Prior knowledge:
Chain A is of the alpha+beta class. Chain A has two domains: 3-61, Orthogonal Bundle (Arc Repressor Mutant, subunit A), CATH 1.10.10; 73-157, 3-Layer(aba) Sandwich (Glutaredoxin), CATH 3.40.30.10. Chain A has helices spanning 6-14, 22-33, 38-48, 52-61, 81-85, 88-98, 142-157; strands at 73-78, 113-118, 130-132, 135-137. In chain A, strands 2-1-3-4 form a four-stranded mixed beta sheet, with helices on one face. In chain A, strand 3 (130-132) and strand 4 (135-137) form a beta hairpin. Chain A is elongated. Chain B is α/β, with parallel strands linked by helices. Chain B has helices spanning 22-28, 79-94, 110-117, 153-161, 197-200, 214-221, 253-263, 271-292, 304-313, 327-341, 359-363, 383-392, 414-417, 424-437, 448-451, 476-487, 518-532, 542-545, 558-564; strands spanning 6-9, 12-15, 52-55, 59-62, 73-75, 134-135, 141-144, 167-170, 177-180, 207-209, 227-232, 267-270, 298-299, 349-355, 370-371, 374-375, 379-382, 456-463, 466-474, 495-499. In chain B, strands 2-1-5-3-4 form a five-stranded mixed beta sheet, sandwiched between helices. A four-stranded parallel beta sheet of chain B has the order 12-11-14-17, sandwiched between helices. In chain B, helix 8 packs across helix 14 (424-437). The longest helix of chain B has 22 residues, at 271-292. The N and C termini of chain B lie far apart (71 Å). Classes of the chains: A alpha+beta, B alpha/beta. Chains A and B meet through helix 3 and helix 4 of A and strand 8 of B.
Amino acid sequence: MPDRFKPAAQILKDYNYDSAKLIPILQKVQDAYHFLPEDIMRFIANELKISPAKVFGVATFFAHFAITPKGKHIVRVCNGTACHVKGSAGIIEAVKKKLKLKDGQETTEDLLFTLECVSCLGACGLAPVMVVDDIVHGQVTPAKAEELIDEVLKAEAK
Amino acid sequence: MENENFVLIEGKKVAIEGERNLLELIRKANFNITTFCYQPELEIYGACRLCLVEVDGMGIVASCCVAPKAGMNVHINTDEVRRLRRVNLELLLASGNHNCTLCSKSGNCKLQKLAEEMGITEIRFKAKQKPVHRDTTSAALVRDNSKCILCGNCVRICNEVQGIGAIDFAFRGYRAQIATAFNKDMGLSHECVSCGQCARVCPTGALVPNSSEIEAVFKAINHPTKKVAVHIAPAVRVGLGEIFGLPQGKSIDGKIAAALRMLGFDYVYDTAFAADLTIVEEATEFLQRFTQGKNLPQLTSCCPAWVNYVEKFTPEFIPNLSTARSPMQMMGPVIKADFVERGGKREDMVVVAIMPCSAKKGEIKREEFYVDGNPDTDYVVTTVGLARMIKEAGIDFAHLPDAEFDHPFGTKTGAGVIFGASGGVMEAALRFAVAELDPKHAGKLDLSALRASSTVKEAELSVAGKTVRVAVVSGLRNARKLLDDIKAGKNKYDFIEVMSCQGGCVAGAGQPQFEGWQARKNRSKGLYDDDAKLAYKSQDNKDVMALYGTIFDKIGGHKAHELLHTHYTDHKDRTGQTK
């Protein structure tokens, strides 16, 4: 088996090739590959003995799954009601400008960052909220958002 | 005691007799409500919401999703039900690109039919046009998702009946659509075998057999120097008539021969001739394998979607496939070889096949069916496509007097004609094989088990001290199960007939659309009625036997092998596996 498929093969084994576990399998696979590549989805379908169109259907139904490559670092800005009222739109603008993202573009050309606007993170008391690589930051301002991204860039430069 | 097991439908007592849902009962009571997503042979889905009725104590329900219960009081045309059905239809009309005059399904579309029945002249909702992407990459099928109403019939038949799942729902909410894996165009779908059953159950023009070649056929007919030969598959003669208001299933081969001549074809032949030829080659091949005990069970190879299936999903059975070409792909080279023998140039003979099938359109494009860039069959037109040609030419089909087919390639036996029904190929092969194994065997074989309208059939024959076990299966999911059982050692057969469409070619994607089993029964009966009037077995076709010694040296001989046999290629997807 080509090396590229080995992480997916291990995940399938961990889930005992159970096609009823397709969603958690895809979640793990996305963690491993940062998105759901076509050949990996096809491999999963063949191993689980379900049709690739079914896997594609599930992968495109849930917003959580990405079928195009995501960046190494995931920045989530909450745009739920509380965060929106507290000015999340300004944060989104600031991040987009900082990362030089065009309208409709989520991932930077160098595949370093992906910006996701999400509907609620369940931390409304901290609004507005921004999550960088699974670390939650509360009461974020546009300036703070830029600082957080600079921190990641600094760590990357090392 | 009086039978209490009935439902009141608009005040009329209707007995419950094992109906699957309230909708079936309502239709039995002569309320033929037009709906989109209910198909008798598929799982109940309840998506289109056009079978709404009001049931006392239950309110408004989708009748396809309700089991009939004694004492129910059902109202069909209340103001509320009428209002809701109309709103649902208007929403469907508003959400798609339903420009009827520019749609190949026009006149045969359920959406159009229901809009007409409800007298829709305006849509109160602001139309939000879906992006139009007309996918013509598949030789077999054309797809236009902007005409799709998401009833899911195509997805369910591909999954439930064919066991493939080449298409499924993808994306979400307003962006939801039917898609192949990874949203590829149909021509690039690895899974699609072109059987076209999705198009057969599509109520709109979202999925239709490709009909792009009709223009080229007219042009070939009008070409000053080219000769055009046409031949019709068995199932066409029992399918075409209903489009012109003739009784469903009645064979009208004479009228078709007349219409084809009026269209200007130079030679009007019958694919049943080539079916007899197929039997001679394929049954001879079977007898050899049977005697040697090699590559059994032999699998029939005349259904192109089935051949695609084996190549893509079960290539381990490629050695079991008969190498005999399908009748269509025997007919082409024979017509062309005969034309060349008589001094013509191969490319000046255009061969058109009228087929009940979408997969046949892909079959002629296989590279092994070309000689120096010239195809063995130039064009495939479906039964419905032929109806269009007849209408465009202004031919009053229903009133045509019968005409004869041209000879020699219009000569046929009953064995060739029954190829269009599930079980027919096997019966024809057995008629040949028994006569070869036991020349003294007189009279007709009793193969009624193979004529039943079920999708998995089997029979056992004792001939000349040997037992031959055969199976007949239609629908690819059934076929797969049979192969899996054979692999697991649970079953053993010598010869298996497989047709992709349940009921056989009579139910192909190129035929007029239908629902349920009755149409299949009517059409099959038409073929067996023709069979009863013709010679019994393929050996009796003198024009077929005369080919051996002229074009071909002998049955199974070198030249016969070149023109009448083929080979297959493993196309299984093995992504991620080591070679």
